[in-house]
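Usage

Read records sequentially. Each one opens with the input sequence:
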Amino acid sequence: MQHTLPAILILLSLFYPYSLVAQRPALPEKQDRVLQQKLERLVKGFRGDVGIYVHHLERGNTAAIAADSIFPTASMIKVPITIGLFRKIETGELDINQPLIYRDSLFYEGEDLLGAFKDSAEVKLSKVAMLMITTSDNTASLWAQQLAGTGTAINGWLQENGYAHTRVNSRTEGRKEAWSTYGWGQTTPREMARLLVQIRQGKVINPAASDRIYRNLCNIYWDDVALTQLPPTVQAASKQGSVNQTRAEVVLVNAPSGDYVFCIITKNQQDESWETDNEGWELIRHVSALLWQHFEPKHNWQPQKDAIKWRH
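and closes with the structure output:
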């Protein structure tokens, strides 16, 4: 049995290369000067403010542009909200499969799926959590924020775990001034990237909860920006966010060379359009493409030429 156990572990690693527990050890962070120069050239001339943080976890390579500046999260705040919700599930105050009753009073105007439910309709908590991340459903997210104990409870966890700047602002006591500046939530590119890394490493709540959160983050409907520049056969956990003058996305790529994470956020954009070629979204696509080519130079995959036809 002593001789067969290592062989079993090797076989398991082949079938489950991206498990939360079987990861190569991360190296100390070091600036990747070549990548830093590439990113600085790429953002030059952007009509707005840009923050970027990149970290190749196994190599330790990093690059940063205004990575510790505070930016609006837009819908990326739904990652901390998910954590708050899952903490309630872990403590037994909620059950992931418990039925909830939707009320019209929960409706948040927009194109949300949950908002199309009839008053008094029944929906499982697990589906509310899924909609919050997968389709970025605002009605589901605000309901989840309430169930998590409001932004106050979520911010308490963030503070306790070393997130000095990432906060829920909307519908949260004492956060009105921050809400007027940053909207629903605020963060830095470094902190939002770190949050995904901690989930990937099984360090948020516990490994099982982190695993469930990570799976939700790998099941994204809004895959028309950064993810368009990654092969569809490569797994990536991600969350977008957009408001008038901000475009944002955080992505952790389970790449052949090892995991890498990046977060890019803009603010004060001059381009406030909602067309697919918005300057902020195009910048995110270019950053994602640059990183894939930088970290996976031997990979011969290229985006399909007519892929723009299939963006949604």
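Summary fields computed downstream for this record:
- Residues 72 and 182 are 5 Å apart (CA to CA).
- The chain is about 35% helix and 20% strand.
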